[in-house]
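Re: beginner question about structure tokens

> Can someone show what the tokenized structure looks like for a real chain? I only ever see the sequence side.

Sure, here's an example I had lying around. Input first:
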Amino acid sequence: MNIIGRLTKDAEVRTTSQDRQVVNFSLAVNDSYRDRQGNRVVQTTYFDCAYWINTTIAPFLTKGTLVELTGRVNARAWVGKDGEAHAALNFHTSQIKFHTGSTHAATVQTQEHNTVAQDALDNDLPF
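And the corresponding structure tokens:
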């Protein structure tokens, strides 16, 4: 399963009681649709994510970063000390892909590429 969203806070590296390290972070995934009245409705789903493969990625997982995750999801439910029912979605991440989330950066790169390509064409002329 793949999900795309933004980190809600900086990732943390934690050590389990078995001395294994894991990167924990939270991801917000937005979905939108139009209701029967034509109003746009945005729903946000939050995932508690765990990445066990390599902890050196943690400094790059900062609040607001747009990422695409591959992995599996499972739900958990519990009753808190106050007697209230709680639920959460956990995402066991096997792959992380970073997205820039900036169309401006892509536009600048395209403009620079076009300028370099045009210069190459101009220099290739026989006169």
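Each token stands for a local structural state, so reading them left to right follows the chain. The radius of gyration is 22 Å.
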